[in-house]
């Protein structure tokens, strides 16, 4: 059996080819997971990206490893945190055992800060999870709205994150049983100093009027 290193070398660090190889030979999945701890950084990152692609295309292959990816939300490397956050969001749609419930608070804990990209990743994943688990939509919206008082490196970082939250909330606005807080949040952002964020607020409010 090929090792992740051999696969990566042959694929010239192409994660898509790694994922394709794994789909053809499912036994390679455990090698990809092992590759996350490889000595060489290119191997680690290629394996991580390949696993993310697999979570998009064949989430059922990764679901048995749900708890492993959840544990990586606290990985010291931010890139691996972001990767794990997106993998878990992709697995939410097949989470028949409701494993996500045990990690809900941890998943959304980056939103108040201090790292904007980590928060934005959780926000993006939150929209996917809300669509996959509609009963959590209002609870997820509450977590996303915490971005309004978040503390990142700069106020502009918060404005960017608010824009991500507006886009994410717009994706599952129709699932909210009580959208009042979300709509109030959007109205406040009509005065946001960032033009792109103002436009996202306008778009969300237009969607609300059409629904």
The Cα radius of gyration reads 18 Å
Number of strands: 0
Spell out the helices and strands N to C: HHHHHHHHHHHHH
Structure annotation, total helices: 13
How would you classify the helix and strand content by structural class? Answer: mainly alpha
Describe the secondary-structure layout.
Layout: H1 4-10, H2 15-24, H3 28-35, H4 41-57, H5 59-62, H6 66-71, H7 78-91, H8 104-108, H9 116-132, H10 137-144, H11 155-171, H12 180-188, H13 195-210
Helix pairs in contact: 2-4, 3-4, 4-7, 7-9, 9-10, 9-11, 11-13, 12-13
Task: Explain how this protein is built.
With 211 residues, the protein is mainly α. The protein has 2 domains: 1-101, no CATH class; 110-211. The chain contains 13 helices and no strands. The chain has helices at 4-10, 15-24, 28-35, 41-57, 59-62, 66-71, 78-91, 104-108, 116-132, 137-144, 155-171, 180-188, 195-210. Helix 12 runs antiparallel to helix 13. The radius of gyration is 18 Å and the shape is globular. The N and C termini lie far apart (53 Å). The mean pLDDT is 93.
Summarize the structure.
It contains 13 helices and no strands.
Keywords, please?
single chain, 211 residues, mainly alpha, 2 domains, globular
């Amino acid at each position: 059996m090929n090792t992740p290193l051999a696969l990566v070398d042959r694929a010239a660090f192409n994660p898509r080819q790694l994922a394709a190889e794994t789909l053809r030979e499912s036994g390679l999945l455990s090698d990809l997971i092992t590759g996350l701890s490889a000595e060489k950084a290119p191997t680690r990152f290629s394996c991580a990206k390949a696993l993310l692609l697999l979570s998009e295309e064949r989430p059922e292959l990764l679901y048995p490893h749900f708890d492993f990816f959840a544990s990586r939300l606290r990985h010291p490397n931010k890139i691996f945190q972001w990767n794990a956050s997106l993998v878990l969001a992709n697995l939410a749609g097949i989470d028949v055992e409701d494993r996500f419930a045990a990690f809900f608070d941890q998943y959304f804990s980056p939103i108040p800060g201090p790292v904007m990209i980590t928060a934005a990743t959780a926000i993006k994943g939150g929209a996917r999870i809300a669509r996959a688990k509609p009963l959590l939509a209002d609870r997820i919206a509450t977590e996303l709205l915490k971005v309004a008082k978040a503390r990142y490196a700069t106020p502009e970082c918060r404005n960017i994150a608010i824009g991500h939250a507006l886009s994410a909330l717009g994706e599952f606005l129709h699932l909210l049983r009580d959208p009042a807080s979300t709509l109030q949040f959007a109205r406040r952002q009509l005065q946001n100093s960032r033009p792109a964020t103002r436009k996202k607020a306008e778009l969300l409010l237009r969607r609300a009027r059409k629904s």
